[in-house]
Amino acid sequence: MKLIVAIIRPERLDEVRAALAQCDVYLMTVSECTGFGKQRGVTEVYRGQELHETLLPKIKVEIAVSEPFVEATVDAIVRAARSGETGRVGDGKIFVLPMDDCIRIRTGESGQGAIGP
Q1: How many CA atoms lie within 13 A of 14 on its CB side?
Q2: Strand partners for 3
């Protein structure tokens, strides 16, 4: 089992959800967050004043999957979250982490069976 954590642009969430649905991945947790990476924020002009925002709005998507779904899930996120053909700085990151166990609270079921519907 793996935990996939993707940090993406907020405007790409609908495309990512649609791409994951095509791979039969429907269970996920979505959180609003802020952060910055290589772009180190943005500078905007507002009413003649230059403002530098370092923390940009992002979306964090967390998905627990069994081994056979890892590659398809990551590929779907990359395709859907990338801006244009080659992407842009700030498109996000994907982290694939080992997951020791998962417990469904309602039934007490654990392991891979707790991930599925």
Answers
A1: 1
A2: 64, 97
- Backbone φ and ψ of 49, nearest 5°: -100, 135
Per-residue pLDDT of the chain (117 residues; tens, 9 = 90+): 999 999 999 999 999 999 999 999 989 999 999 988 877 777 778 788 887 777 889 999 999 999 999 999 999 999 999 998 888 888 999 999 999 999 999 999 999 888 876
- Ranges assigned E (strand) in the chain: 2-8, 29-35, 42-46, 49-53, 56-65, 92-98
Go through the domains of the chain in sequence order and give each one's CATH number.
Answer: 2-114 (3.30.70.120)
Distance in angstroms (rounded) separating the CA atoms of residues 13 and 60: 9
